[in-house]
Amino acid sequence: MADKKKRRRAYSDSEDASQPFKHLLKSDDQILQILKSFSSTSSSSTSKPLTLADLSLSSTCREVSDLSLSSVQSAIESLVLQLTHQILSGQGFSFTVPSRSSSNQLYVPEVDRIVLKDKCTIRPFAHISSVRKTTITARILSLIHQLCLKNIHVTKRDLFYTDVKLFQDQLQSDAVLDDVSCMLGCTRSSLNVIAAEKGVVVGRLIFSDNGDMIDCTKMGMGGKAIPPNIDRVGDMQSDALFVLLVEKDAAYIRLAEDRFYNRFPCIIVTAKGQPDVATRLFLKKMKTELKLPVLALVDSDPYGLKILSVYGCGSKNMSYDSANLTTPDIKWLGIRPSDLDKYNIPEQCRLPMTEQDIKTGKDLLEEEFVKKNPGWVEELNLMVKTKQKAEIQALSSFGFQYLSEVYLPLKLQQQDWL
Amino acid sequence: MADKKKRRRAYSDSEDASQPFKHLLKSDDQILQILKSFSSTSSSSTSKPLTLADLSLSSTCREVSDLSLSSVQSAIESLVLQLTHQILSGQGFSFTVPSRSSSNQLYVPEVDRIVLKDKCTIRPFAHISSVRKTTITARILSLIHQLCLKNIHVTKRDLFYTDVKLFQDQLQSDAVLDDVSCMLGCTRSSLNVIAAEKGVVVGRLIFSDNGDMIDCTKMGMGGKAIPPNIDRVGDMQSDALFVLLVEKDAAYIRLAEDRFYNRFPCIIVTAKGQPDVATRLFLKKMKTELKLPVLALVDSDPYGLKILSVYGCGSKNMSYDSANLTTPDIKWLGIRPSDLDKYNIPEQCRLPMTEQDIKTGKDLLEEEFVKKNPGWVEELNLMVKTKQKAEIQALSSFGFQYLSEVYLPLKLQQQDWL
């Protein structure tokens, strides 16, 4: 009977009694003080980011920038004029296209991004191997020119369908679209070609989306869908102390419902898995305009770190635009491999890493962006050694709200990020 | 030279000159009149939907309904009390669980939904084959009870991670969760267990999300993310004449940017592909509260029709909750197989159907929900005969804005839906 009673009590109190480390938590006011000082040092240190021009690199790099629609239009018109002169002078019709192959990519540790070097290839019309690609390039340029005149946005899929006969498959029109960005020296968003939206944002942020003012503290639990076209996003205002970048939906929903951003003023953003271009641009814009530190909450597995790296230093595919797409100095808050033992994540909530996971982890250890952060190397080494991974959701084993009520507050209090 | 001039003119005017059927368009005011009369007949005809109770069915059906959190809590407590009596009286410990196997499913044409019949199975604790499942059921009931006490929402993934050792994999906890819904006679959303959000909404709709009022005309181009928890959605107001249900992102973005909802008052919603539970519940709520007709814009392929059918009459997996999840009387606006010729979609924008596509199409022809709509049967027969499919994006071959400027207005003007 005594045993039964004990069991019943343990059962009803289980959620609170089993929340390890809760006793370490200071008051919210004390944690807020810690965050305020972090936020202010962070904004002063990032106020003057390095650019490629500040460095004396041995090879020249090619970078694109945001151009206005009218500048894109002029750039296309001058290019066509130049081509016409070329043809009239008897030199034939050819484009000079920056190479985007991996041999032309470079990781620059000073700016912590992958960038494109300056190798170019000639794409002549009068050659059997390049006549199709040259034609596609001309067609894409003409379509972009139409977008400039109409001032509308379209998706890559729309673009493909305007001339299926020529493009044959979407990979071809997509690739040439990136070529055109490089050729014109502008970002893909400047071309008004957008990718489908995926990300959501909630918390202490006010911004304008296509002229409408959006208050992200008043977006309920669903949050605001991140607009696909960053050029119509503006007027960002915030009293947040940091941006919390969350890998997955489930954790985002937990934090949105608990209105975590009201306890610790922050902006919560997620791309629901792999970062899409719109979310990357949105994060970058928040970092630049609001000068807030960015803390990342990802799964403790190689893909979590890989996602962090795409936000932080870019993907090889779009290295020509890494300056606009990457957000420097993202801190790895959690779930880190060392957290598994530190927070006593139960064995059954840890998953064994597959062969592929371990290979990906080892490959990451060779990447420059990991190497330059000794803390990350240590964590990743631990992951590969223990061969264990864990999702953010593993924290639910201590109760559904352990993430928002204990884990994150304690992380913030202890400034436990790398 | 003359030829050159002609080509140049054709080039610059191409977008407008090549927009077939634009000359058929009446003025927006005339189209609005058509929509208004459609919208009013639609709201009066659906004002008294049939329920299963209105029918004299040979077999009894099991349906769940939305219950308040406190009712769910009481239901769990009475169930446990009943089990205790059972055990004390020496009958042992067992759950009576409604069967969700396909032999227990029924399509009811009168209400146009798949429903669950009333077969049940006994799940005894004292049997080797069911001891685990019985334990899992008890554990899930206890977790749901905690959610009721705390009044929070969690995802299915969270639920799984609270006891990985017992559940072993998420399929097991997910399946028992559906069992528990059936046992308690309530919807899964009543249990406060939610799926990740996916859908977005934009247009002439105002609603409250977790206490915040959201005006969907002021959500820019990104729109509002549909909240994962329908029970915190309320106060819907709208001056729209119809709901436009869009299968995919790209078309949604086009319509949002063009603010199509201001030209023809409507609410535009998409689940970005396969319909998720949150979007289905949201659509249903709009239909019920606002009494608006729903027009669907999907790809012209078997999956487009399948998606339409999930919105319309439910999925087999959640047939116990079809009354809450399905939106009756969705009209198939386009892209319909007959539109391919009618709108002169160029051959190169049509795709050949694969063997699998054709099989899926033929299977659909056997489904009751298709059979009962002769127009749909005709369209589907045409698709299977021509072996051609097309995406919504195929309309981009007539210019990026052909969808919003010609195709949809003409469809509305001609009341061309089935």
UniProtKB/TrEMBL annotation, chains A, B:
Q: Which residues form the Topoisomerase 6 subunit A/Spo11 TOPRIM domain?
A: 242-412
Instruction: Provide GO CC annotations from the record.
Output: DNA topoisomerase type II (double strand cut, ATP-hydrolyzing) complex; nuclear chromosome
The cellular location(s) given in this protein's UniProt record come to: Nucleus
Residue ranges annotated as coiled coil are none
Question: What Pfam families does this protein map onto?
Answer: TOP6A-Spo11_Toprim, Topo_VI_alpha, TP6A_N
The reply to whether Ribonucleoprotein figures as a keyword in the UniProt entry is: no
Q: Where is the Spo11/DNA topoisomerase VI subunit A N-terminal domain?
A: 132-193
Where does the chain bind Mg(2+)?
E247, D299
E.C. number, please? 5.6.2.2
The molecular function terms in GO held by this entry are:
ATP binding; DNA binding; DNA topoisomerase type II (double strand cut, ATP-hydrolyzing) activity; identical protein binding; magnesium ion binding
HAMAP family, per the entry = Top6A (MF_00132)
Q: Which family does it belong to?
A: Belongs to the TOP6A family.
| Matches recorded under PANTHER family | DNA TOPOISOMERASE 6 SUBUNIT A, MEIOTIC RECOMBINATION PROTEIN SPO11
Please report the name of this protein according to its UniProt entry: DNA topoisomerase 6 subunit A
Which gene holds the coding sequence for this protein?
Answer: TOP6A
